[in-house]
Amino acid sequence: MMNRSNLVLLRPMLLFFIVLNGLFIVGRNTLAEWGIDQSVVIVGNLLLFSVNIISFLLSRRAMNSDNPNVFVRAMYAGFMIKLFVCVAVAFIYFTSFKKNINKPALFICMGLYIVYTVIEISILTKLLRKKKNA
């Protein structure tokens, strides 16, 4: 499923993930000064990266179909997967750390969700423009 062409296409998302995790690891003290839990942000970044890779691969595979409805269904499926995974992880986090919830880290994760989604959609849009009958 993950071939060389998909890796090349996912380079911006992979680069963003690596740079961001590097910043989170190196900036541990700065994050702590700002009241941001480093582990929440790193796990959130890993989770969002993983879910967006799955969503991208579903949509990318659906692009090869002659039926345009397959692509639309794959986009909706990707959205639903992201939504349910994020809700499930948030529920687990809220129930595990009832009084110690780190709101700044959650807001950073919400921002990361938007950024990863924008990167994924921009890659898919470029692919659709290259496709002849899109």
Written description of the protein model:
This protein is mostly helical and 134 residues long. The protein has one domain (4-128). The protein is 83% helix and 0% strand. It has six helices and no strands. The protein has helices spanning 4-9, 11-26, 28-33, 38-63, 68-96, 103-130. Helix 4 runs antiparallel to helix 5 (68-96).
Briefly characterize the structure.
The protein is mostly helical and 134 residues long. The chain has six helices and no strands.
Features:
134 residues; mainly alpha; single chain
Total helical segments: 6
Oligomeric state of the chains in view: single chain
Helical fraction equals: over 70%
C-alpha-based Rg, rounded: 17 Å
Low-confidence stretches: none
**Helix-strand makeup class:** mainly alpha
Average of the residue pLDDT scores: 90
Task: State the order of secondary-structure elements, H for helix, E for strand.
Answer: HHHHHH
Query: Main sheet?
Result: none
Q: What is the terminal separation in angstroms? A: 22 Å
How many domains make up the coordinates? 1
Q: Compute the number of strand runs.
A: 0
Note the overall shape: globular
Beta-strand content estimate: under 5%
